Amino acid sequence: MTGDTADPERLRALVAEFSTKRILVAGDLMLDEFLWGKVSRISPEAPVPVVNVIDETYYPGGAANVARNVRGLTPGALVLGRVGGDRYGCQLLELLAASGIDTAGVRQDASIPTTVKTRVIARNQQVVRVDRESRAALDREHEEQASEYLEHVVADVDAVIVADYGKGFLTQSFANRLVETSRRAGCVLTVDPHPYTSIEWRGATAIKPNRLEAFLASGLPPADPVTPVLAGYALLEAGRRLMERWSPRELLITLGEHGMLLYGGTDGPRHIPTCARTVFDVSGAGDTAIAVFTLALASGGTAVEAAHLANLASGIVVGKLGTAAVGAPELLASVG
Fold first, then answer.
1. Range of the domain at 69
2. What whole-number distance in Å separates Cα of residue 59 and Cα of residue 268?
């Protein structure tokens, strides 16, 4: 069924509650580097544009961008993860601290490089992306340290968000601890899964794959979008399989320009149409969605209300260039 229209007054009341919540984000931390420039000619060495760089900007990426989105809506943002013992790791920690995000749960590991994604932008279009990363799995010693930190703070947070980017911080044993510790504390646990890992998240409150991730995780080949969304049998079957596999209370599949598909309850899947008017850049839209969806659940919202707010927030960030975050005034204005 099509997603019920949420009461604007109720949505505004939920957003007003966001600032009272404390949210822990656990996952793969990254640094997003943007090189802004101009293209005036083609290289004589190869048929590629020559970009004259005129500016550089840096933002938290991956799980760090999820934390940045949380921090845009509440002062109670904490992060659990690791960075390399390099200048990029120091730079990322400085960015997080400057944003008011609690980084006590971040460990600097000299044995790995900080994950850095460099995007070269010219004429408001991405020319190329360069990735520097390691996928080394979290070792037993560091897993114990991360688990101790989790046990220390979980009683004082309202929700835990897991952002898995497949860079090694999240292992099955640590995932099990995250689920069990959150359940024991009565804490909302939401997961943004990675499609190319085999980690199971049974027992999570909610799981938010995107369309491609949903197909890959369900073992089905990706299928083209269908209009109306609820007529797409392949997508519905992927959602059904994931509900059976992971047994979350809710499953939210983000569909880009086609909105979102919500599973949970007894009424069957609900389609929530997109709210985006102009799309400049989809980078980080999923990070915004999981942050807002989780904050709404932690504030006492229903899954449908939380999905509506997440959909509104995603519609805002895709209208901005680069990884972006949403503030409460923007979100309230979009509620109407």
1. 8-30+61-114+135-335
2. 39
